[in-house]
Design goal:
Largest sheet: none
Number of domains: 1
Structural class: mainly alpha
Number of strands: 0
Shape: globular
Strand content: under 5%
């Protein structure tokens, strides 16, 4: 019985992590869209047009791509983190949560 509760707790934690990761990715997209130069670069890299960005944002993999874009440019990552009072590593953790990666420390 305790195993079921522990397992259910992990599922709930996972859902909460995913929801938080999605919220961070949406904040990152808003950050990108807030400045025409950042948005132009993002659109050029992704091949999206301004009219299709809202529809693309509904796709969880698109949100992973947003975080990839932010994490791939250190200046952009640091500016995003500073403006939104995030630890830059939160972006990496959010990316991992959305992409399904889960890191666990190996115990000898």
């Amino acid at each position: 019985m305790a195993d079921r509760r522990a397992s259910g707790g992990r599922k709930s934690d996972s859902k909460e992590r995913r929801a938080a990761a999605e919220a961070l990715a949406i904040t990152a997209l808003q950050f990108i869209a807030a400045e025409p130069e950042r948005l132009g670069r993002f659109l050029a890299v992704t091949g999206l047009g301004p009219q299709s960005i809202r529809e693309a944002a509904r796709d969880p993999q698109f949100l992973v791509g947003v975080l990839d874009h932010i994490a791939g440019d250190e200046r952009l990552l640091l500016a995003f983190a500073a403006e939104n009072e995030f630890d830059p590593n939160d972006v990496i953790r959010a990316h991992d949560a959305l992409s399904g990666r889960h890191w666990e420390r190996e115990v000898p």
